[in-house]
Design goal:
Elements: H1 3-13, H2 22-47, H3 51-59, E1 62-66, H4 71-80, E2 89-91, E3 93-94, E4 97-101, H5 103-107, E5 115-118, H6 119-147, H7 163-167, E6 173-174, E7 177-178, H8 179-195, H9 203-229, H10 234-258
Parallel strand pairs: 1-2
Antiparallel strand pairs: 1-5, 3-4, 6-7
Helix pairs in contact: 6-8, 6-10, 8-9, 9-10
Length: 259
């Protein structure tokens, strides 16, 4: 049988020509497409696995401060991967000037990079700093009256209030150091934590610990006024109100830092 007859017979019978298995080719195409789709999906998921976390930071009002020259900032960006586009990032550096800084970051008191801080935390830290300055002022006035010899008229109200008796009593010094001076140094330390070191991770704990210790000491002095000396000092009570307010605010900062 000639070759032409065999070809005509195959055409009549509908048999496919050798080497053209369309079903197998179709399977190969489907497998290749599925493989590419799966690879793209896994790659996308790998690059965007922190999308929810990055969005959550923004929803909570957290801002990430960094600089283009900061190597640690680059490491954080790499860890976020493609999800970094959703992160609330603030560029503090000035391109081409490693010593320059964005005014927004200057106003926020950012000194170190990278730093992450919410707007609420910044406001609370500012409140603590303002209260601490008020505490320094009150303590400095008390220190002046501690060494003064003249009578403090504005602080003497009847028999219940007399700052001179309190500020010049044996309880107005601790190991030879005026209590008012200790108060000034304590308030200054709290102000430093709330401003210069506000972005450090350990600051909320240090702030709460320092404020708590100051409040305990102020309550002890208040007990001395009430039970031992029998008179009240307006300056001391003002200082008690200030340190109590700082303690409450610091507690809120600490709780928010734990979230």
């Amino acid at each position: 049988m000639s070759q032409q007859r065999r070809e005509r017979r195959k055409e009549k019978s509908g048999e496919p020509e050798p080497g053209r298995n369309w079903g197998r080719i179709g399977v190969y195409v489907v497998v290749i497409v599925v493989a590419f789709g799966l690879a793209y999906y896994l790659g996308y998921r790998s690059g965007h696995k922190y999308d929810s976390f990055a969005r959550c930071l923004g929803d909570r009002g957290v801002k990430m401060y960094g600089a283009w020259w900061c190597s640690h900032c680059k490491e954080q960006k790499e860890k976020f991967g493609a999800s970094f586009e959703y992160a609330p990032y603030v560029e503090c550096g000035v391109e081409g000037n490693p010593k320059g800084q964005n005014p927004v970051c200057v106003d926020a008191g950012i000194k170190h990079f990278p730093t992450a801080m919410s707007e609420w935390t910044q406001r609370l830290m500012s409140i603590v700093a303002i209260l601490a300055v008020c505490g320094v002022v009150v303590s400095s006035v008390s220190l002046q009256h501690h060494y003064a010899k003249s009578k403090t008229e504005y602080c003497e109200i009847g028999e219940a209030f007399n700052c001179d008796i309190v500020n010049r009593s044996e309880y107005s010094s601790l190991l030879g150091i005026p209590v008012a001076l200790i108060g000034m140094l304590g308030y200054a330390a709290l102000a430093g934590l709330a401003t210069v070191y506000r972005e450090r991770q350990e600051t909320p704990s240090l702030l709460l610990g320092g404020a708590g210790a100051g409040l305990a000491f102020a309550l002890y002095l208040t007990y001395i006024e009430a039970r031992v000396l029998g008179v009240w000092c307006i300056l001391c009570l003002s200082s008690l109100a200030v340190i109590a307010s700082i303690t409450v605010t610091s507690c809120v900062v600490w709780v928010r830092s734990r979230d």
